[in-house]
């Protein structure tokens, strides 16, 4: 069956996660975030990705409540920031996030970055939150293979999601293969490369399929099986980013996009978390 904006992936614990969502990193608290989330929910998005460090959880919560969409139909992700890590601090941070969101549970809670010496205790706290039913699914963000192997050597509950920087210039094939083997759902942040879409191949494929370069890149993510959360605060762009279901990239074009890889990060390297 062909996908729609309602399509989901099944996580290790049986929970269903939407394949496409809205990211709100650097969306200003207040009207900007509220309008973006409202526009996304009107357009059919059901995954909203925020974090405590984004300082806009309250706005996300207000927009969700005002939307009229039942809470159980919205998949909300938030994350514990680096200076909140450690067992007790993570519990406190999570409770603060729930209060800000105005909800009594989160659908997914992530360790935002692998802070050396802390991420195992942080994840242990997240396991406890999961045991209590306060979060429906748990996972990590920005973990490389060795971080995942280290964590899985001691955790009780395997991470269900790993959110990582992934796009045509940083395809993360080794990480992708590892996560697939382990049943960990890979999710992409910064999928549109900070707007660096002026690549000749993307222009060629956009003309071929009658789509925009952004839509080509997002469809590439979906066909790889990667959940993706493009960020925008413009309603027209939010709708454009969801217009992905009336075409399918041919296998040879997937391969050509893969070949753009330059191991180029726009964000930080998870092996050097000093912030």
Automatic annotation (TrEMBL):
The keyword Metal-binding does not apply. Keywords: NADP, Oxidoreductase. Signal peptide: none annotated. SUPFAM superfamilies: NAD(P)-linked oxidoreductase. The keyword Kinase does not apply. InterPro entries: AKR, Aldo/ket_reductase_CS, NAD(P)_OxRdtase_dom_sf, NADP_OxRdtase_dom. Residues 19-261 form the NADP-dependent oxidoreductase domain. Belongs to the aldo/keto reductase family. This is Aldo/keto reductase. It comes from Cohnella suwonensis.
């Amino acid at each position: 069956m062909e996908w729609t904006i309602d399509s989901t992936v099944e996580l290790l614990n049986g929970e269903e996660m939407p394949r496409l969502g809205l990211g709100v990193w650097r969306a200003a608290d207040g009207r900007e975030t509220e309008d973006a989330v409202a526009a996304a929910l009107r357009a059919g998005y059901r995954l909203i990705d925020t974090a405590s460090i984004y300082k806009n959880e309250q706005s996300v919560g207000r927009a969700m409540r005002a939307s009229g969409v039942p809470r159980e139909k919205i998949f909300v992700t938030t994350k514990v920031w680096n200076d909140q890590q450690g067992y007790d601090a993570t519990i406190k941070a999570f409770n603060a996030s729930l209060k800000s969101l105005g909800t009594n549970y989160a659908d997914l809670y992530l360790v935002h970055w692998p802070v050396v010496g802390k991420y195992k205790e942080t994840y242990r706290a997240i396991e406890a939150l999961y045991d209590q039913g306060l979060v429906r699914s748990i996972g990590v963000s920005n973990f490389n293979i060795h971080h995942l192997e280290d964590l899985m050597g001691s955790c009780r509950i395997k991470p269900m999601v790993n959110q990582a920087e992934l796009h045509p210039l940083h395809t993360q094939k080794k990480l992708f293969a590892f996560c697939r083997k382990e049943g960990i759902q890979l999710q992409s942040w910064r999928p549109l490369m900070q707007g660096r879409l002026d690549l000749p191949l993307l222009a060629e494929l956009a003309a071929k399929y009658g789509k925009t370069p952004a839509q080509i890149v997002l469809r590439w993510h979906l066909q790889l099986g990667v959940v993706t959360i493009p960020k925008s605060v413009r309603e027209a762009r939010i709708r454009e980013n969801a217009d992905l279901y009336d075409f399918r990239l041919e296998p040879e074009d997937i391969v050509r996009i893969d070949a753009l890889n330059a191991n180029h990060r726009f964000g930080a390297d998870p092996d050097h978390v000093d912030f």
